[in-house]
Design a protein that fits this description.
This is Oxidoreductase. By secondary structure, this protein is an all-alpha fold. The chain has 6 helices and no strands. The protein starts with 7 loop residues before the first helix and ends with a helix.
């Protein structure tokens, strides 16, 4: 299975690994905003970097719900696209800090990598073991039953 790079199972599993990894990263960032920095502290950080403080709550919510959706494999392409503005905002706040994320305040390399990973996820889709696949099979079976019923 892994010997053939064009194997569709390998591609589906690769998309799944990327999807779940991104979901875990977004959940970790949402958790840090809520439990470690607090939403008030996150709002102050946002203001210090030129963003309105009120955006801390929507960003937290996007990371939390987006992370859960990615892990579950629910609307993966749409969720990945929706998370891009969150990371573009993060990129804007890190770009002046240099390239390496180990720089004081963190650089932009990690954020840029996550942006490219989300774009890759959009292109790959949900992968294996995703709610999207269950929904697609259910819709196919439902539409197939409707078609059979209407022609009977």
């Amino acid at each position: 299975m892994l010997g053939n790079a064009s194997n569709p199972h390998s591609s589906a599993l690769a998309a799944t690994v990327l999807r779940v990894s991104l979901g875990v990263v977004f959940l970790a960032h949402a958790g840090a905003k809520y439990f470690l920095f607090t939403l008030d502290g996150t709002a102050r950080f946002f203001v210090a970097h030129g963003f309105p403080g009120w955006t801390a709550t929507p960003v937290f919510t996007m990371e939390l719900l987006g992370g859960l959706a990615l892990i579950a494999g629910l609307r993966v392409r749409l969720v990945s696209l929706a998370l891009l503005p969150v990371l573009l905002g993060a990129f804007a706040s890190h770009v002046s800090l240099g390239w390496m994320f180990t720089n004081p305040g963190g650089g932009w390399e990690y954020v840029a990598f996550l942006i490219m990973a989300l774009i890759t996820q959009v292109l790959l889709g949900s992968g294996a073991f995703a709610v999207d696949g269950v929904l697609a099979r259910s819709a196919t079976q439902t539409h197939g039953s409707v078609a059979q019923t209407s022609t009977s």
